[in-house]
Specification:
The chain is mainly alpha-helical and 119 residues long. It is 64% helix and 3% strand. It contains 4 helices and 2 strands. The chain has helices spanning 3-8, 38-48, 55-97, 103-118; strands at 26-27, 34-35. Strands 1-2 form a two-stranded antiparallel sheet. Helix 2 (38-48) packs across helix 3 (55-97). The chain is elongated, with a radius of gyration of 25 Å.
Length: 119
């Protein structure tokens, strides 16, 4: 081992891993990092140790990464929908507090008119 090999490696950090009682964490065979699940181990190996993986582990990483990407996209769409619902709920509550029965309808029509005009 040369001096450059030891300087290129980051210092070993203490990782916080939450594992249910009675179970042991999955440890990376390359760097020893403890991970909460096998799914996270596959993602860690693919991101940090790609060169060392065989074809089967690389394919497992691709499948796991694609599933994670789909889950993240679904989460983002749900949160966007929640923000839109909250926005209009606050808009209607605000118009109700003002006691102007037409303000919420007009505001919604203006918003939908702007959306349809941009298409």
């Amino acid at each position: 081992m040369t001096d450059s090999d030891t300087t290129d490696r980051p210092e070993r950090a203490a990782y916080e891993t939450r594992v249910p009682p009675g179970e042991s964490p999955a440890a990376c065979p390359y760097c020893g990092r403890p991970l909460e699940s096998d799914r996270l181990l596959v993602l860690h190996e693919g991101l940090d140790h790609w060169e060392r993986l065989d074809d089967d582990r690389r394919e497992a990483f691709r499948e796991t990464y694609a599933g994670e990407t789909d889950d993240l996209r679904t989460f983002r769409l749900k949160m966007l929908g929640l923000l839109v619902v909250l926005y209009f709920a606050f808009l209607f509550v605000y118009s109700y507090v003002l006691e102007d029965p037409y303000s919420s309808t007009n505001a919604a029509l203006v918003v939908f008119g702007l959306l349809s005009r941009s298409r």
